[in-house]
Write a structure and sequence with these properties.
By secondary structure, the protein is mainly alpha-helical. It has one domain. It contains 6 helices and 2 strands; from the N terminus they run αααββααα. The protein has a two-stranded antiparallel ribbon. Strand 1 and strand 2 form a beta hairpin.
């Protein structure tokens, strides 16, 4: 397992982060610019809270709302890595959604 705390776009190599290789083709991923979740689980913007950010685009498919993407994200290798790396400091879905609601 990696020791470096990667953001989702680095781990998944989607190219949808600002200035990413696929931004012109597919647009910027909402997780990469969701500043309210910055530093949650040690990530940049929503980079380590992506499973709770609506409108992400993983595996070549738009993921939609949190409810629509829940199953896929909870079984994602990246999500499991974040849980493992954060240990007792892990900020889970409820904490992330609470932060998102505080807008």
């Amino acid at each position: 397992m990696e020791n470096t705390k990667l953001n989702c776009w680095d781990y998944l190599k989607c190219g949808r982060e600002p200035k990413g290789a696929k931004v012109k083709e597919m647009g910027i991923c909402p997780a990469s610019v969701k500043t309210i979740t910055n530093e949650m689980n040690g990530g940049k913007n929503g980079g380590r809270a992506c499973w709770a950010v609506a409108g992400t685009f993983c595996g070549g498919t738009a993921q939609g709302s949190f409810a629509e993407k829940l199953d896929g994200c909870m079984n994602c290798n990246f999500h499991e890595i974040v849980i493992s790396q954060e240990g007792s400091n892990y900020q889970g879905t409820i904490e992330i959604l609470d932060k998102l609601k505080s807008l």
